[in-house]
Amino acid sequence: MATVVTTVRRSFGTHWYAWAMVLPVVIVLAVLVGYPLGKGVYLSFTDANEANVARTIGVNHIEATYKSVGLDNYWKVLSGQEGHFYSRLGWTVVWTASCVFLHYTLGLGLALLLNRPMRFRALYRVLLILPWAVPAFVATFSWRLMFNEKYGVLNAFLTKLGMDPVDWLGDATLQKVSAVAVNVWLGVPFMMVAILGGLQSIPRELHEAAEMDGATPWQRFRHVTLPGLKSVSGTVILLGVIWTFNMFQVIYLLIGQGASSESEILVTYAYRLAFQGVRDYAGSATYGILILSLLLVFAVFYRRMLTRQEAVR
Amino acid sequence: MSTAQPARPLRHRPREQRSRTASAALHTALVAASLVSVFPIAFIVFVSLRGRDGWQEPTRLVGFDVSNYSHILGETKFLTWFGNSVIVALGATVLGVLIAATAGYAVSRMRFPGHRPLMWTFLVVQMFPMAVLIVPLYNILGELELLDSYTGLIVTYCSISVPFCAWMLKGYFDTVPVEIDEAGRVDGLTPFGTFWRLIVPLARPGLAVTGFYSFITAWGEVAFATQFMSSEEHYTLAVGLQTFVGQQKAEWGLMTAAAVLITIPAALVFFVAQRHLVAGLTAGGTKG
């Protein structure tokens, strides 16, 4: 017992500075993330909704009357009884995969084009980064106008070319295509700039040596460029997946806040559960916990895969 | 606008001279990509200058006026919302960066029990979909009577930006040589003194970048602002813009003018920061 106390005291003596410096962050995270998360987990085991949570109307405080329902919420969602969980999950995965794939490949392609001496390079770079400078909600509204069936500029072009106008945001499949297009437009610049940074950190000698050895451009790309980009790619793909999986604004603002639609991803659906109609706090929390678990599992596997590949410390 | 420029030899000769076709193909690809990237922005600027109903004829090229701008500046709450956005974004930035910097430094320089779990927490919190937090936060803020207040929204945005800023700053502090800390320690500075007097001034670009990041994030946030700010006087731009194109009426002309005015400050901040932003983002990541 005495030794434990000594260890703790000695540890405190050595580390109290470090602890003091991280304390504010720990408090912020505990109060604003830890506590709400705990409460979210708790709500997901209850039947809480707008009608039975504690609330204050005027001067009267009404006590909460919701009760525990155990794993009922999870059962309802996972057995597919409520909210078409699996089809929504399927679309969310397709959405994430196609967006991140297009972000990465287009970003890589443009970075490779920009990473060589030529005229107007700086100009191209600025023009290509431009979408990133536009706040996502502004961009989404702008695209909604361009997709407008009757007055949108895209349909105006199609009509001029002699084709029929398309109901971009009405039809379920086209809604999905449009949402992916907007998100790709928004996300490619970040990937491009990050990969460009990665390309410039690859020592020039490596390419020259490979060239001397008679490697074709494709071989140089495969065996010098791609391995050189590994750590940057690992990071941006992980961030990209997390950001896209949780991408709220594009779907919510592009497709509208009205009736349920197939094109909603898990996050926007959870949001609507919580704030529309009879506010279903418990259902929303259940969805939230499930989304978080999915991402955690993904991140753990992803990091393990990366670590295996190149033993980061 | 630039067009493809094949054929002519480059002023700075590349190691191997590109063939004419390769050069033409390169520039064609880049011009096409630039058009896709610029067109939506140029189009919105164009529509915003076409008057209240100009958006209904997107391909007509004549008749410019600034009535959309004078209308949203004079007859809507746009300027109030703009002010709200500035207050909330600046508040979140200052608070967030202050808290994140000390933590980032500690994690970068000191090996202490709890170091790894904390780094993990920073990473994991990135993954938090706001769907998990929004309901509990809504209830908590409601109990504290902080709904529909600047404080409530600022504090909420801190929960989004702090872990990420700490993560980025850790990567940035890692690039400052440890010898500087040692020199400070030799001169009798405390660890905190070293941080405050030596490292903070050196890390100013890194702090600026995280500041820009928090600012841009707060400026563009929709989900929390939509639920937490219920009175029109307290709307941020992200909420206010939705009112132009609601279910009943669609004032796309006003929307485009507002879009332009919202984008200008964000884009200015962005272009100052972007080069460092990416370096910071990926540095934090690769060294996690």
Description:
The complex is a heterodimer of chains A (313) and B (288). With 313 residues, chain A is an all-alpha fold. Chain A has 13 helices and two strands; from the N terminus they run αββαααααααααααα. In chain A, a hairpin with a 2-residue loop joins strand 1 (55-57) and strand 2. The mean pLDDT of chain A is 84. With 288 residues, chain B is mainly alpha-helical. Chain B is built from twelve helices and no strands. Chain B has helices spanning 20-48, 67-75, 78-109, 115-126, 130-143, 150-174, 178-186, 191-202, 204-219, 223-228, 237-244, 252-286. In chain B, helix 3 packs parallel to helix 6 (150-174) and helix 6 (150-174) runs parallel beside helix 12. Chain B is globular, with a radius of gyration of 24 Å. Chain B starts with 19 loop residues before the first helix and ends with a helix. At the A-B interface, helix 1, helix 3, helix 4, helix 5 and helix 6 of A face helix 1, helix 3, helix 4, helix 5 and helix 6 of B.
What features would you highlight for this structure?
heterodimer, A: 313 residues, mainly alpha, two-stranded antiparallel sheet, 13 helices, 72% helix, flat, B: 288 residues, 12 helices, 0% strand
Structural class of chain B, please?
A: mainly alpha
Strand content of chain A: under 5%
| Secondary structure category of chain A | mainly alpha
Major beta-sheet overview of chain B: none
Order of helices and strands of chain B: HHHHHHHHHHHH
Number of strands of chain B: 0
Overall shape of chain A: it is: flat
Q: Please describe the biggest sheet of chain A, giving its number of strands, its sense, and whether it closes into a barrel.
A: 2 strands, antiparallel
Q: What value does the Rg of chain B take, in angstroms?
A: 24 Å
Biggest β-sheet: strands ordered side by side in the sheet of chain A: 1-2
Distance between the termini of chain B: 42 Å
The amount of beta strand of chain B, in percent, is under 5%
Radius of gyration of chain A: 25 Å
Distinct helical segment count of chain A: 13
Amount of helix of chain A = over 70%
Uncertain regions of chain A: pLDDT < 50 for 5+ in a row?
none
Categorize the overall geometry of chain B.
globular
Overall pLDDT metric of chain A: 84
Overall pLDDT score of chain B = 82
How far apart, in Å, are the first and last alpha carbons of chain A?
Answer: 35 Å
Give me the number of helical elements of chain B: 12
